[in-house]
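Project standup — Tuesday

K.O.: blocked on the structure for the chain from last sprint. Re-posting the sequence here as requested.
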Amino acid sequence: MEAALKVAKDDGCVIQASDLGIRFRRNRRGRRSFKDLFAGRNRRTRPSEFWALRHVTFDVKRGEAIGVVGRNGQGKSTLLKLVTGVLVPDEGSVEVLGGVAPLIEITGGFVDDLTVRDNVNLMAGLHGMKPDEIQRRFDEIIDFAEIADFIDTPYKHLSSGMKVRLAFSVISRLEEPILLVDEVLAVGDKAFREKCYRRIEELLAGGRTLFFVSHNERDLKRFCKRGLYLDKGELAMDGPIKKVLDRYNKDYGLLTE
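H.V.: unblocked you, prediction finished:
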């Protein structure tokens, strides 16, 4: 099957992954012994490929909230990047209907030497927000991020928590129908995390679709009714979030919350 990022047909599904797979290359360099160094010998670097994801098939309906679980390195973030189009699959296809608001590595793209004001204009514009819409939503973005006193401060002088607050505030104001969240709220204070979670609930109540990667079972159960369990790059289970978490915990001998 030809690998591609396509636009899904409007049949109620907003994301359709079919036999999805992507591989990466890693280099393996043999250790050089003292004898090699003395003789001037170089061991060549041999390229090695591995499948980060393979044979992954699922559909996501409009308005669903899907939790993606699995240990680190099992392909969760890679899957989200395939959905956004940042990565292109080597096998199969992923079809997406409508735009995506990616809460993935959300502080990336901000420019250190620009002020908060300029960064809001830049990032909102890059994500497709029109200038008049940015102007209309600017105060709302700043107020939500709780950084009104730092509007004309260079971005590089913000704390890490303030940077996350600003990024979340910008991205969560986009009108895109699909929201992708990848552990971005693991940092920051508890009060602001709860504020962000209430914002996500507002978006879900408004009919948005959520793809949510997290290691926090309480958060997954709070937002999601369905789960995808990725293990060794393959889809080990697709089902109700509680059953998916039970299976994941059982496989790795983890305690349930």
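K.O.: great, moving the ticket to review. The helical segments are 34-39, 76-84, 116-126, 131-145, 160-171, 190-205, 217-223, 241-252. The domain at 64-88+98-252 is CATH 3.40.50.300 (Rossmann fold).
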